[in-house]
Amino acid sequence: MIPQPFIHDLLNRLDIVDTIDRHVPLKKAGANYVACCPFHSEKTPSFTVSQSKQFYHCFGCGVHGNAINFLIEYSGLSFVEAVKDLAEQMGMPVPEQQPEPDKGNTQYLSEEGQDDLERPSQDLFEVMKIATRFYREQLKVSDKAIAYLKKRGLTGETAARFAIGYAPANWQNLEMVFSDYKSASTQRMLLSAGLIVISDDGDKQYDRFRDRIMFPILNQKGLIVGFGGRVIEQEEPKYLNSPETKLFEKGRELYNFFSARRAIRDAGCVVVVEGYMDVVALSQYGVAYTVAALGTATTPFHIQKLLRQTDKIIFCFDGDQAGKKAAWRALENCLSQLADGKYVSFLFLPEGEDPDSYVSKFGKQAFEDQLKQATPLSEFLFMGLSRATDLQSSEGCAKLVRDIKPLLQQVKAPALALMLLKRLSQLSGISQTELEALLQIKRSFTKQRTQEFAPRKAPVTPYHWLILVLLYSPSYISKLDRDVLAACDENIEEVAALKSLIDFLDVHPNIVNSETTTSILIYLQDSPHRALLESVESETLEWDESIDLEAEFSGALMNLQEMQRKKRMTELHSKSLNMLTEEEKEELKRLVIS
To answer: Which of 516, 531, 525 is CA-nearest to residue 82?
Structure first.
């Protein structure tokens, strides 16, 4: 919904070095900046940022992009959130293209109501801030709520740090801070924020959260997007979370993630627990690198988000059946997100203990000692599948292979996949080669994944060099020999990518003639050749001011012409002399002489 010209203007104005340096410290290295890649584990910096062309590229894992791509990949923001974040930094108001209103429904809305439907999310964020302040004030005057938190061992400082509050037991508490609580516009706003519930007949409205300890949930930018409410008495449900709203998606948010990011990086790991109180209690005892899912199973998006911050995830669940079930769901959602060098493990505390009670009884050191004993994902995987299986029988081994097949097929990390396959071979007595056939695992896949981290090869084709020069300086398109290009085989990916790039520049002369040096790949995000173009563009990071573009371009064009000459000669020589036309004979003479 954000106009493309605005996005391009934004990327042309900002400095990608400043954007990335806020999150990953960069060091000057010649004309570029470098750091250890935040997207994979490495000891020698291969993550390179070009200030002149405004893009980054990692020579280790191949990630490539602009400032928007970086915020999406690093911080887990959506595209729109990333654009708005950067625009805010630059002081640029973001224009939004509003969809046409549904004329079939407008007759049922007042003019005020129609305006309210178009209010931006910022209004909802303000509503959440007001509600948070209200709940915090209510906590201060509720002896019942204070007594409960003290009983749980929480200090006032901890409650303040997590902005914990209390929702009184009355049905319409929010009327105290929203004077027009029952007006149509405010009702819609509170409903959109998930703070109220309206009866099926639309006759009654009441607060969603009543007589509960309130835990504000923050998004990636530190803005309040929802609440978790915990009962004080023995009531159900124990935890009540905000519903899915425009601001809040349970499958994308993690409790305490925003506040824990620095601690996660410092500790080199993150602990995932089940409840809000577990997070708060652990943090109070100094285990600040802790997060919790929000009333839902851990999702692949959660895993992806966490692995961007650290290489090590430890799931810490209760040792009961419910905890083990939650751990297994987490394992299933981890498999497709794992990369070699990433570690996932599972800790089950002694029976009757949860992280909150355990750290309160035994302290930080004892809890962290437990973390060191966590079971690696690979062991937990085979333990879970083998528990109810008789591996002494052929039937049991066959069942193990059947059960693990859909799980193992999700693993994209080549070394881990190989180790799991070896372990399965040991348990089942079936050779690795036979297992590969049974599980439909192809060695070429493993080889392909391994090659992603192999050293780059120097370009060997003139198509590659022409793409390279055009990406670096689009103005060279005016010097292209179009006749030579017309004869090139488009079944070759580099040829197809080159022609696609030329077609794009032909219809965008403003880009060709522009004085900006920013990478033109910001305009080609949807190109089917994007991966190839990004890989080629990364080679310009090794260029310096001594590069002779004219010579590079002319040399590539001459090589292409020579390739076409030899190709045509081969075609003509393949025919017998008496089969050649007079024109073809003359053409052959010219080709031999030239």
So the answer is: 525
Helical packing angle, 394-408 and 432-439, nearest 10°:
60
Q: Count CA atoms within 13 Å of residue 348 on its CB side.
A: 16
**273: which strand partners?**
292
Token pair of 220 as six digits = 């990636």
Would you state the pLDDT for residue 538? Answer: 85
Q: At what angle do helices 79-90 and 4-13 cross, to 10 degrees?
A: 50
Least confident of 21-25, 296-300, 437-441: 437-441
The burial class, CB within 10 Å (0-12 / 13-18 / 19+), for 112 is: exposed
Mean pLDDT, the chain, whole residue set: 83
The phi-psi region of residue 83 (left if phi > 0; otherwise alpha if psi is between -120 and 50; otherwise beta) is alpha
Cβ-Cβ contacts under 8 Å for 315 (sequence gap 6 or more): 271, 272, 298, 327, 330, 344, 345, 346, 347
Contact between 314 and 270 under an 8 Å Cβ cutoff? The reply is: yes
Q: Amino acid letter at 185?
A: S
Token pair recorded at residue 165: 């509050």
Q: Is residue 346 exposed (0-12), middle (13-18) or buried (19+ Cβ within 10 Å)?
A: buried
Beta-sheet strand order (sheet of 312-317): 290-292, 270-273, 312-317, 343-348, 375-376
162/228 Cα distance (integer angstroms) = 12
- In which band, very low, low, confident or very high, does the pLDDT at 442 lie, cut at 50, 70 and 90? low
Q: Which of 521, 557, 514 is nearest to 56 (CA)?
A: 521
Of 146-155, 401-410, 477-486, the range with the lowest mean pLDDT is 477-486
Taking residue 148's Cβ as centre, other Cβ atoms within 10 Å add up to 17
- What span, in angstroms and rounded, lies between the C-alpha atoms of 378 and 423? 9
Contact predicate 415/338, CB 8 Å: no
Percent helix, strand, coil in the chain (nearest 5)? Answer: 55, 10, 35
**Token representation of residue 351:** 């029976």
User: What is the radius of gyration, based on Cα positions, of the chain?
Assistant: 30
Residue 447 burial (CB < 10 Å; 0-12/13-18/19+)? exposed
Distance CA 39, CA 74 (A): 8
Q: What local confidence, expressed as pLDDT, does residue 151 receive?
A: 94
* DSSP codes joined into one string, 245-300: -SS--TTT--BTHHHHHHHHHHHT-EEEES-HHHHHHHHHTT---EEE--SSPPPH
In the structure encoding, which two tokens stand for residue 363, read together?
């302290």
What's the one-letter identity of residue 236?
Answer: E
User: Angle at Cα 145 formed by Cα 142 and Cα 148, nearest 5°?
Assistant: 145
Q: Specify which residues 434 forms β-bridges with.
A: none
CA distance 452 to 586: 48
The answer to whether 51 touches 15, Cβ cutoff 8 Å, is yes
**Exposed/middle/buried for 482, CB within 10 Å: 0-12, 13-18, 19+?**
exposed
3 state SS of 211? coil
pLDDT at 203: 79
**Digit-coded pLDDT (tens) for 109-125:** 233 333 333 344 668 88
Q: Which of 42, 30, 108, 57 is nearest to 20 (CA)?
A: 57
